[in-house]
Write a structure and sequence with these properties.
The chain is an alpha+beta fold. 30% of the residues lie in helices and 27% in strands. The strands form four sheets. Strands 1-8-3-6 form a four-stranded antiparallel beta sheet.
Length: 306
């Protein structure tokens, strides 16, 4: 018979709740599973493309790495079974795993040495929606449900509150309704740059726009004599939107003056969420040209940003 080495499931655990708004500080000790440098490097490689972790900052990502523990899997092991309460979230390091649903165990997906599974039951307090069985021997990294919910839900809550405050201070976004700003906050991705880093390059295709959380950013235009600074932006400022509005290459480069934290909005989310602000941004193009003419004396001396 097929062996389920993970059969000792706790029942009636998925009714528990976690309220990030009332969690001022994490209670109790953080889950930390010691790892060798080699194990940590392997885990980093396994989680780097997991969509769920995309919005975590460096400190939160380290907490994820600390909290995950290794599971050695043998072929034919059942990792999770449909209908069970969710206890762990799994990231695949190696091995092939098949997902099945229904009483007839219909095959719906194969994970081939990459990916993750088990998050739905933990995020939404619902029983397992599918059965996952190992086809080969392999290795998984697991995180228990409480740690998973605390890190992911608290991260999402803090991120939304922080970005809502940031966006509230951006005059252009006053045209958005509250729920539209909330959707925008959820779509932002944190990025960090160190002093001297180039954030965007003049002439490149535009992939998104940036809101400054912390630090200073220098906006520069390349001229025959070299780069000329045309603006210096601080917390609450934003840049990169002009190329998205005009559908042209970047009109300027942006550099980190010191250590900079930005919230990045990719082009798809920009087009989906910032429709109400488009007229304001188009007006900004005119203001931008006026500013350049003051600097360079003639519109003939500046790169066409339209």
């Amino acid at each position: 018979p097929l062996v389920n080495r993970y059969a000792s499931r706790r029942k009636s655990v998925f009714a528990e709740t976690y309220d990030p708004e009332n969690d001022d500080e994490d209670e109790g000790a953080r889950a930390i599973f010691p790892k060798t440098d080699e194990q940590r490097a392997r885990l980093c490689d396994s989680v780097k493309n997991i969509l769920l972790f995309r919005s975590l900052d460096k400190e939160q990502m380290n907490e994820v790495l600390d909290a995950m523990f290794e599971k050695i899997v043998q072929a034919k092991d059942y990792i999770i079974k449909q209908g069970d309460d969710g206890d762990n979230f799994y990231v695949i390091e190696s091995g092939i795993y098949n997902a099945y649903v229904g009483e007839d165990q219909k095959h719906i997906h194969t994970y081939d040495n990459r990916g993750s599974f088990g998050e739905l039951a933990l995020l939404y307090n619902m029983p397992r929606a599918a059965t996952i069985q190992a086809e080969t021997d392999g290795k998984l990294w697991a995180m228990d449900r409480q740690t998973f919910r605390r890190i992911l839900l608290k991260s999402a809550f803090r991120k939304r509150k922080m970005y809502e405050a940031l966006l509230d201070a951006v005059p252009m976004l006053k045209a958005l309704q509250n729920y539209e700003r909330m959707n925008l906050a959820d779509a932002l991705i944190p990025q960090t740059y160190t002093k001297g880093d180039r954030i965007i390059k003049q002439g490149d295709a535009a992939d998104g726009m940036y809101f400054i959380e912390d630090g200073k950013v220098s906006i520069r235009i390349q001229q025959d004599a070299g780069e000329v600074e045309i603006s210096n932006l601080e917390k609450g400022g934003y840049f990169g939107e002009l190329a998205l509005v005009t559908h042209r290459p970047r009109a300027a480069s942006a550099y980190a003056v010191d250590n900079v934290k930005v919230a990045f909005l990719d082009v798809d989310a920009f087009e989906r969420l910032l429709g109400p602000c488009m007229n304001i941004m188009k007006r900004n193009i005119g203001d931008y040209e006026t500013q350049l003419v003051k600097i360079f004396g003639s519109k003939n001396n500046i790169t066409d940003i339209r």
